Predict the structure.
Amino acid sequence: MSQSSPVEVHWHKHSITRQKREQLNGHTGSVIWFTGLSACGKSTIANLVDCRLHAMGIHSYLLDGDNVRHDLNAGSDVLAERHEKPFAERFGLGFSAQDREENIRRVGAVAKLFCDAGVVAIAAFISPYRIDRNRVRGTLADGDFVEIFVDTPLDVCEARDPKGLYKKARAGLITDFTGVNDPYEVPKNAELVLQGGEGSAESLADEVVAYLKASGKIG
Amino acid sequence: MSQSSPVEVHWHKHSITRQKREQLNGHTGSVIWFTGLSACGKSTIANLVDCRLHAMGIHSYLLDGDNVRHDLNAGSDVLAERHEKPFAERFGLGFSAQDREENIRRVGAVAKLFCDAGVVAIAAFISPYRIDRNRVRGTLADGDFVEIFVDTPLDVCEARDPKGLYKKARAGLITDFTGVNDPYEVPKNAELVLQGGEGSAESLADEVVAYLKASGKIG
């Protein structure tokens, strides 16, 4: 070792472990994954759970379309504003099966990082394919992944249709729309199933918090 | 609104704002971005800064090759273990200019999410291209991005060569190796420049913490 490279003396890592981050936060990290049809209520319920946890002093963070659509998982049109066209076309995500696969893979990887940071990561995505959700589960340690299926009947979702997307999909203006012309695969082993067509969003959020307490995910 | 869709009654978002997350954490979120040649010391210094901040009760999280290489920014070989080949080839990242661009874009997007969660995100990546670093800066609010250039002379880095990578690059066994056969573009407006060839990693980490205090990023 040369005297001109003193940094190397301390080349070994002094990493802060997940356990130490959890000690600072006062609770463990985990990934709470909401899945279900468009307009099933998952985003609303996830937001309420985030509020409940925050009020309890728990370090949570919500990942949903609002904060990943414009950056991490932006479409090629958004990427093309800052990058070359071939780049935007390769990495931009739309709604094809392959794009959805990558969409969920990236979100899963980010949720894992938040979990490692001792944060309760709350993800709310349609995530229609079972294999994609199970891949996320597979990257996490046992017990770190809590899959919550918001089981709202399609006709209820379609009656809500807050953005008019079902209507457009039925008119053939949107292709690959989950529940209309692209499948939704019901979870087989979800940790919790919410009857999204019954009860208020508040009561469903209460169910989630009760589950997290009962299962020891939060104190 | 039909009576069968009570969730919609509360369809509006009750989002926890960044400000509320920062209040819970007791400090603001930010992105501390270390850039520099391979073996310049950035990862070691970043780790030490993470330790210092953690000891101060600050919620920090370190993003570096160790925790993004195998998941978020995995190579096509790793992705091919769980995904189809065309998927792995499209989204897997190597060291071409386009792949490095996406590597930094994804890390920047994740750092932004941590910042929004009120966490001090510490990123340590070679990030050799100015435009890629500036794009990350451009996605963040003014003051949220702290660029730290670990300015260690190439000959010092090469003398360290802890993984033998410079040797391999000189022998032509690695292409696109920053500093040897791929450029490193020195930051023009870094918030802080560390003389990575002088002083211990500890003293350089102290410099960073002193800067963060002086600039009001941490209390």
